[in-house]
Please model this.
Amino acid sequence: MKAPILVALLLSLSTLQLKAEEEVAIILRNEAESHYNELEFLNRELRVLQGRFEMLDSKLEEMSGSELQQMKSSLGALQIQMTTIRTQIAAIPTQDDQVAFMKKNKQGAAPASAPTPVSDDDCCGSNCRCDKPEPKCYLEKEASCTRWGISLGGDWLYWQAKQAGMQYATTYKALPGVMSNAHTEVLNFEMDSGWRVFGKVDIPYDGWDFFVAYTQISPSAHSSVSGVLYPYLMCQNDSFTSDTFVNQAKARWGIELKAVDFEIGHEFLLCKSFMLRPFFGGKGAWIDQDAHINYIGTPTSPSNQYNISIGSDFGGGGLRMGFDSVWKWAAGFSLFSDAAASLLWGSYDLDQTQVLLGIPEVQWSDHLHGMAPVVEAKLGVSWDWDSFCGKYHIGLDAALEMQYWWQQNIYERFTSGNTSTPTVLSTKQVYDLGFVGLTLGGRFGF
Model:
């Protein structure tokens, strides 16, 4: 009979111990939140008083007589208020003190005073403290531990370009005067590699930062086709005759994108696991496009070659704005999403040359100005690791990124009116450019 009673007593003691530990944890958490909020309020009050003190002290040299005496009295009163607040801050217990006191006295009351005060140096100086309670939800970044910071990083881009208006030939079944079973041949870009480098400077004032990035990628597309072909880009008669068609077509299209982004951002900690960073700034971009198309052979002249070169270069700059967001998970992992929109004003340098058997048949150029909107979006997962209380930072991320550029593929498509009219007609082709793909990056901060 004694054994069951002993087991029951041990179980009761274990249950009581677990309940006591839970109550201690709840008390510690409530006390920590209360003390942290009180500390935040006092630190803010102290910063406001220090700012007023420095402002008044800078005006002492400009005053004399009764004004000087009144100013000195005001400064003395401010010093007394700051001393009182520092005393109140020193009396707020730290979390370590609460834990030690609870273990020693086995009750929920916190100690009346702490041996060391909480100050900016406790967070960022040599006496590093990483055990302060998590902040509650509020619409400003924690400012008590902000300092100058620099982050440098780079991204590997594995993107595919998407662009309309890249058709160069039409295959069809040869029937007199008609095009039957026609199919348009279009250039398509494959996945290509690019790169991006960036830097960020955090300033010790209310969560503001400066960010700059440079992006470069140069995709290219190649294609060829043989058979009975209609040369889509060749300047010729609109009517279907024996020399309207060619036997072979080869095409190559290249794009080079260079972009510079500059941002001024501000971080808002909406709650302890979600951060929002709206930003504004500028964007500059240079997009050079070059296409080369070769049409070879006609039914009556199998050796004829018709070469076409098309150039469409854009350069411009404008305003940029957007936001970054981070949802923190566990073990350093986070889900992040970025979005931005830009409106660029720039110039287009357009040119085209068509040569038949070494003789130029079309030599054309134009210079235009216009607006080019841009939208960008990114969604991915990141992993971050801080060392020495956040003095050094390492981050890795992987994301799906998309960009859309309006009015980037511009060229003239030349045709003649009919067989009896030598006047050359043309229609301006205007198409958009897009990028989509994988972005892998890393960064280091200090």
Q: What stands out?
A: The first strand starts at residue 149 and ends at 163. Confidence is low (pLDDT under 50) at residues 105-145. Helices lie at 2-58, 66-90, 95-105, 120-124. Residues 155 and 256 are 17 Å apart (CA to CA).
